[in-house]
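re: ur question from yesterday

yeah so i grabbed the chain u mentioned. its 351 aa long if i counted rite. heres the sequnce exactly as i have it in my notes:
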Amino acid sequence: MAIFVPERKRVIPDTLDPPAAMGPSFNMSDMRLRTFGRLGWRVSEVGYGMWGMAGWTGSDDAQSAEALDRAVELGCNFFDTAFAYGDGRSERLLRDALARHRGTRMYAATKVPPKNRRWPARAETPIAEVFPYDYIVQMTHESRRNLGLERIDLQQLHVWSDAWVEDDGWKRAAEDLKKEGAIEGFGISVNRWEPANVLAALETGLVDSVQVVYNVFDQAPEDALFPACQRLGVAVIARVPFDEGSLTGGMTVNDTWPEGDWRNLYFTPDKLKKTLERVDRLRPLVPAGGSLPDLALRFILHHPAVSTTIPGMRRVHHVEANLAASDTPPLSAEKVAALRAHRWDRDWPIP
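ran it thru and got these structure tokens back, copy pasting raw so excuse formatting
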């Protein structure tokens, strides 16, 4: 596969010194842009995932605001939130950031939570219990108020099953919300480890983007989803670039999380041990002077189907380190091939 090199956006350099760990090649002045599918937006290839700002333990609003501001300064213009992230708290953080940066084009993407509040979607659950027409419309207007926007750039369904594709309600909601100017684009966030469970929905022509787990371990979207998106002009948002933290390289087998933190389900002791063993096998591929997170992001960005990837970031130094991945050369074909050998098709229950 040819290495994909998108264009760069020039931004004003900031006066803050770069993190020392990044080395002298860390240049904050560039951010590559990619076209967001048939919507034609020019978005930063490294976007901003906002779940951790409201949906994880340890969130601090002032710290989050500082990190968001730094991201804008460095050229990030795509921000992904959801009503479910703190019952609108994350959306309101983005609202305040949009207000602080009036005049800067920032793309706001959010999501309609399942009405039954169950993740992931189950094919046997009737769509009337998850995404009835009136509910999609109601929640979209609620998110508009949280975001302080007349029109949301991208509204997404937060779960999905292709068993629902023939239902008329979600289709009418997508069409009507666009017609009335409440949203510009409509997307679907697919279940973890089920990247093909959206292909029928894409064929309706109503879905402008798909959000999917894609990283060094989770490479299955390349099989069927990415070719379909490229054929149909559907944008791809690659989420969970660091496998919920394991690919940052900083986790240990002794890590625990507060009660109620969902990572306790994702990283049970046995799963954590297996995961970190695989992380250790990746470390020899990290270039001298580089980092595992940078390598993980650059693997995602090698694929031309990806419009943007959305690492979660709560602190300024996370923002600076992650956005720097867009200021480094693309991975070589040899490095990509070596990373492909680390594909991991997990058979765990979806948490």
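noticed a couple things. The CA atoms of residues 36 and 42 lie 6 Å apart. also The radius of gyration is 19 Å.
anyway ttyl
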